[in-house]
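HUMAN: Spend a minute on the protein record below and explain its fold to me.
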Amino acid sequence: MWRIIHNFLPTFANLQARRLNVINHCPMCENESESTEHIMKDCSFVRQLLLAQGINFVDRPLASAWKDWLAQTFLGLSLAHKRALIVTFSAVWYAHNKLVHEGLKPVLSNILSYIPASLKESEMTLVRSSLGPPIHHAKWFAPPGDVIKVDFDSAFSLQTRQSVSGVICRDSEGMVLAACSFPHARISDAFMVEALSCYKAVQFAQEIGFSKVLVEGDSRTVVQKCQADSSDLSLISPVVADIKALVGSFIDVSFGFVPKMANMAAHTLAQEGKVFACPMFWMEEAPPRTMLAAEKDRLALDNS
């Protein structure tokens, strides 16, 4: 919402103003220049989304700046419409990027079904947070028997839109079996990066040939979506679907949440992976700081 109000979205109009060679027209309605105001207010596709939720924007007076007009309009909405507007803006920009980068045309009914689902999910998060955080022991635990634990985490920079996934695989004795770091580009959402990191963890375990795995990360929402039997309607639903499609290739696979302090090896690996421009893979080892974090976890097992 802050980026929209301050006109910081990389719309084609803004890219053109920065002297980039782009075709400045809205890819969703193909009628007008793609400014922030157009893509979030005047585009015919977006107007249909807003009207379906009872939000009817009036025209902005010529003497009023976009920032002032949007702020005043937003403050005049009911609480329910404020929440719906924020989720709609997020869904519109996501659909826009899918169209521009992947050629996937947005479907009005799909977005309209996503918005209430996202609102319901945010309400449930507020309820859970009001109950206080769950109590976890901030310690890495080894997997049982012949199960391999696959920990994942990500490093994300909003300014550069660069991100890295870190994945480390360990056995019941805490020994490092394999590790990888995987860079991503042009992803502006940390939530999406966490989902991609989980996918990379499952994919990496499959490619190595592990048959029984426990996939763990410190993104509670991503883990819950992978555990759920129901269909996912969030923005990361395609990634969650890809993760579930890989599950059948294992004899046994489960997903678990761990607090950040119990996931330091994967966290360190994601940070160390920033220096590599391409995917990196290690067998029975990992970068130095990651190995140190993994060794601390292993020594804690011996002392417990």
